[in-house]
Design brief:
There is one protein chain. The protein is mostly helical and 260 residues long. It has a domain at 172-260. It has helices spanning 2-11, 14-37, 44-55, 61-77, 81-95, 102-118, 122-139, 151-165, 168-176, 187-203, 207-220, 222-227, 229-242, 247-256. The protein is globular and about 65 Å long. This is XRE family transcriptional regulator.
C-alpha cells in the first residue's frame, strides 16, 4: 500500500500532490504505531523520519504535529524527556489556539503526561491529565487524526501515570474499575491498558489479579499481547511470585508461546 501511495505522489502535482503527501504521512504514522505496539521501538524511527518528510509537503499541518508527538513518545522511551517536553509544548501552543485542533491539543497533553510520569513528576503529569480531561469533555470520543481521543483514553492515561509515578496499588484498583465501552475504537490501546493493569497488580503482590488482567489484554488485542515483550516480563514476574506453575498460568504461557 505504501509503495502505491509513493507512486501516486510521484505521478501527481499541485494540490493533488499535497493531498497524497498527507495520505503518505498518515500511512507512515500508522506503520510506526503498529510497530511500537509490538514493543519494537527502534524500528519506529525510520517510519517517523519519512512521516516528518512528507508532512512538510502535505496540505494538513495537523499530521505534522502528530508526527512531532510520536517523536516525543520515542524520546521519552529513550530517556530524552527534556527534548520531548520541548516538542510537546510546541504542539500544545500550536493546537490549543483559536484556529487549532482541541483533539490534537488533548492528545499532546496525554503524551506530556506520560513524559512527566517517566521522570516521576507526578504533579506535572496530572496537570497534563487535567488539561486533557477538560478538552475531552468538549470533544467527546473521536478518532480525528486517528488519535482515539476522548474521556476513555484520558482515563487510560491517568491509570498509566498512577502506575509510573504514583501508587501502583491505587493504579491497580482504579484501573480494574475503569469502564471501557465494548467495541472501543482503539482495541490496542485497551489491550495496553490491561497490560499496565497486570503490572500494577503484580507490583501490589496479587499475581492472580495480574493474570486476569493479562487475559483481558489478550481478549482486547490478542496479537499485540502475544508479541509485546512487557507481557512476557509480567508473566515471568507472576511465576516468580507464585513459585509454582498453576494450570491457568501454564495455559496462558502456552498460548503466548513462552514456556516458563
Amino acid at each position: 500500500m505504501i509503495r502505491r501511495i509513493h507512486g501516486a505522489v510521484r505521478d501527481s502535482g499541485g494540490e493533488n500532490r499535497a493531498q497524497v503527501s498527507t495520505v503518505l504521512t498518515n500511512a507512515y504514522l500508522l506503520a510506526g504505531w503498529a510497530i511500537r505496539r509490538t514493543g519494537r521501538p527502534a524500528l519506529v524511527l525510520p517510519a517517523l523520519d519519512l512521516a516528518d518528510h512528507y508532512a512538510s509537503t502535505g496540505n494538513d499541518p495537523g499530521w505534522g504535529s502528530l508526527a512531532m508527538l510520536d517523536r516525543a513518545r520515542m524520546l521519552t522511551h529513550y530517556g530524552e524527556s527534556d527534548v520531548a517536553d520541548g516538542l510537546i509544548d510546541t504542539v500544545v501552543t500550536v493546537t490549543d489556539s483559536a484556529h487549532g485542533s482541541p483533539v490534537l491539543a488533548g492528545y499532546a497533553h496525554l503524551v506530556g503526561a506520560v513524559n512527566r510520569a517517566r521522570r516521576l513528576n507526578y504533579s506535572g503529569a496530572m496537570s497534563h491529565i487535567e488539561a486533557a480531561r477538560g478538552l475531552a469533555a468538549r470533544t467527546g470520543e473521536t478518532d480525528e487524526y486517528v488519535t482515539a481521543f476522548g474521556p476513555v483514553n484520558v482515563e487510560i492515561h491517568a491509570h498509566a501515570v498512577e502506575l509510573e509515578a504514583g501508587d501502583p496499588n491505587r493504579a491497580a484498583v482504579q484501573g480494574a474499575g475503569l469502564s471501557i465501552p465494548a467495541g472501543h475504537r482503539a482495541p490496542t490501546r485497551v489491550g495496553h491498558h490491561w497490560q499496565d493493569n497486570a503490572r500494577a497488580w503484580l507490583m501490589s503482590g496479587k499475581p492472580e489479579r495480574a493474570l486476569a488482567a493479562l487475559n483481558k489484554a489478550r481478549a482486547a488485542a490478542p496479537q499485540q499481547t502475544r508479541l509485546h515483550p512487557a507481557v512476557r516480563e509480567t508473566l515471568y514476574g507472576i511465576a516468580a511470585v507464585e513459585r509454582r506453575r498453576t494450570d491457568t498460568l501454564a495455559g496462558f504461557a502456552g498460548w503466548l508461546g513462552s514456556p516458563l
